[in-house]
Fold each of these.
Amino acid sequence: MDIVVVLLALLALFALGVPIAYALGLAALVGAWRLGIPPEAVMLQISSGVSKFAMLTIPFFVLAGAIMAEGGMARRLVAFANVLVGLVRLRGGLSAVNIIATTFLSGISGSAVADTSAIGSVMIPQMEKSGYPRVFATNVTITASVQALLVPPSHNAVIYSLATGGTISVIALFMAGVVPGLLLGLALLMLCIALAYRHKHPRGETVPLGVAVKLSIDALWGLITLAIILGGILGGVFTAIEAGAVACVWAFFVTMFIYRDYRWRELPLLIHRTMRTVAMVMTLIAFAASLGYIMALMQVPARVTAFFLTLSHDKSVILLMINAMLLLLGCVMDMAPSILICTPILLPVVTSFGVDPVHFGMIMMLNLGIGLCHPPVGSIIFVGCAVGKVTMEQVMRHIWPFYAVMFVVLMLVTFIPSISLWLPHLLKL
Amino acid sequence: MASAFRRWMDALYLLCVILASASLVLISAVIPWSVYTRYVLNHAASWPEPMAILLTIVLTFFGAAACYRTGIHMRVTVLHYLLPPLGIRAVELAAELLMGLASLFMVIWGEGLVATTWHQVIDAFPFLSVGVTYLPIPLGGVVTLLFVVERLLIGAPADRWAAREPAAPG
C-alpha cells in the first residue's frame, strides 16, 4: 500500500509539471511520512547524494564537452571526416561525413544534444547545398548523435554509475559503450549508403593531399582530448574524475590558444550554460538519492523482481519486457531522471536473471537514447529540428528507417552481451 | 512595487549564477591542481578533494535555484498538451505551490542539518564547520522560495541571460 501511495504521489507530481528533481524529493517525503521516518532522514540522503567525490565526473565532462562542441571543434572534425570519406568517394559521402564526425565528437563531448547542435549547424546546410534533402540531413544528425550516449565520455554512463551507488565503475561503462556506439554508427552508415543509392545522393569528393594533411593536423589537437581521457584512465595515470578535469583544461587551452575562434567575452556565457546543465543534473541526483533510499526501505527492488518472476522465468522475455518499458518511458521522460529512477529498481531484477550490470547499462542507454529521438520529450529531436530549421512533422514522416536501424542495434546489444562486455573483459575492468 | 521586486529577484538570480559559476570554475581548477601536485611536485595535496565537494554543494543548490527561476529544470509537460488554457493555468499554479512546499522543506530541514553539524569540523579544513558545507541547502531553499513567490505574484521572468538553450544532459 505504501509503495502505491508513493508511486501515485510521484505520478501526480509529474503530471502537474513539478520539476522532476523536486517531485522526487516530495515523493520521498510522502514515503517517509508513510513509513514513519523523520524528514531529517530524507534531508540527510539529499545532502549525501551530492557530497560524493564521484559526482565531480559530471561537471568536468559536461564542461569539457561544451568547450569542445562550441569552440570550433565540430567544424574541424567535419573537415577531418571529409578527408577520410573522400578517400573512398562513397555515394552519399556527406551522410558518412556527418556520422563519422559525430563519432569523433561523441568521443570528446559525451553529449548527444551538444553533438546534434554542433555537427548539425555545420553539416545540415552543407548537405542541403550538395543536394541532400534538409529533412534527411536532419535525421542523420539526430540519430547519429545517439552514439554520444554510448561511447566514452558519455555523461549518462556517469549518471548510471552514480545511480548504482557507485558499485559499477565508470571506466567499465565507458569501455562497454565503445563497440555498441561504433555498431550504431556503422549501422546508420549502411542505411545512409543504401538510401544514397536509392535516392541518387551525390558522391563524396577527394580532398587534395596538402589540404588533407593540414585539416588532419588541425583536428588532431581536439582528438588528443580523446587520448587524454581514454589513455589517462586506462594507463592508470588519472582517475575518471581527474581525466575529466584535465580534459577541461586541455579543451580550454586548445579552444582559446590554438583554434582561437571562440571569443573570450563569450566564455562567461558558456560557463553559465554549463553551470545550469550541471546544476540541473546534480539536483536530480541529490533528490533521486532520497527517493532511492525510501524505495530501498520499502523493498521495492525485491518486490519488482518478484513481480517479474511471476510473469516469466525466461531471461529473454524479461529483457524484452524491460526494453519495451524503457522505450515507453523514454517517450515521456528525459534520460537522466529515467536512469536515476529506474536503475535502483530494475538493476536487481536483471542481475537476478544473470544480466551483467554493465551490459544492462548499455541496454538502458540505447533504449532511452531512442526516446530522445522522438517527441514529446526527445531533446535531441527538438534541437535537431531547431538547428535543421525543419518541423517536427517533417522529421517524423521520414525518420522511420532510422528508428528501425536503431531498434535492430538495440536488439543486438540486448541479446548479444559480448557486444558490450568484450572490451571491458579484454581490459580486465 | 512589482518592478522593484523583479529587480531584486534579478539581482538575486545574478548572485546565484555568479556563486554557482565561480564554483564550477574553481572545481575545474582544484582537481587539475591535485594532479599537478601529485605528478610534478611529488606531494599530493589533500585539500582539493574536500574543497571540490564543498564547491559542488554550492554549485548544486544555488545553481538549482537559478535553473528554477529560468524554468529549465526537466519536467513532464504531457498534460499541457491535453488541457485547455484554464486547466494549464490551474496545473501551473499547483506546481508552483508544490515547489514552494519543496523549498520550505529545504529551508526547515536543511537548517536542521546545518544546526546539527555546526560544531563538527572538516578534517582537511579544521577551521571550517561541517554545517557550513550544508548551508547552501537552506539558503538555496530560501532563494527558490523567493523565486516561487515572484512567479506567483508577478509571473515568470524572461530568460535573458542565456544566448542559447543550455545543453541538456542527453
Amino acid sequence: MSSIVISGDTSGAITLASPSVAGTNTATLPAATGTVMVSGNMPAFSAYSSTSQSIANATNTKVVYDVKDYDTASCFSSNRFTPTVSGYYNIYAYFQFTATLNINQIQIYKNGSQYKTFTTSNSAAGCSSQISQQMYLNGTTDYVEIYIYQNSGSSANINGGQNSSAFQGILVRAA
Amino acid sequence: MTLFEKIKAIYPSLEDKDFMTVITLQNDSDGKGDYIAKWEHPTLARPTAEQLA
C-alpha cells in the first residue's frame, strides 16, 4: 500500500485511537469497498408486550409491544421497526398463546404486507411460536411489524411479560 | 358479532382454510377494528359494506 486517502468535505475530524495498553495490534481491512460498521451505526432493538392481548379468530392482528429493552438508534416506535441504516437485518419474534389451538401463525410484515409466516399446528396452551428471518431494509422507508393469526373459533389471548413475548431486530450487514 | 362471524353468516360455505389463503382479515391494533385486507375468493363476491353493517 502506498497511501491512505481520506476523502469527503464535511467538517470535523477523524480520530484513529490506539489501545490504552502497550502492544502491537493489526487491524486488517478487507480488499473490498463498503461501509465500516461500528456500534454507533448498527441499529438494534428489543421490545416486548407487558400485558396480554386478545387475538380475534381468523384475523391477522398486529402485536402491541409497549416496552423496549433497548433501542440503540431510536428506530422502534408504535410497534414498528424502521431502521435508519440500509442493510440486511435479522428479525426475530416469539409469543405464547394461553389456549390450545389448531393453527397459529406468527407473521413478519414488511411495509404493511405479509413477508414471512411460520405456522404451528395443534399447539398446547403455553407453547411458544417464534420466527427468525433475515431481510433487506432500505434504511429510509422500509419498516417491519409482527402479526399473529389463530383460528380456534373464538378470540384467544397471547401472554404478556418479558419472558412471554419479544420482537427484536439487528443489523447483520450493511448494504 | 365479529367481522369473521358476519362473513361466515353471509357465506356459510366458507372454510377455515379460505381465511388463510384467499381471504385475509386484519386488525392493525389502531382502534379501527377488523377489516378485509384481501378478498381473492374465486367464486364468492366480496361482501359489501351494507352486508357487513
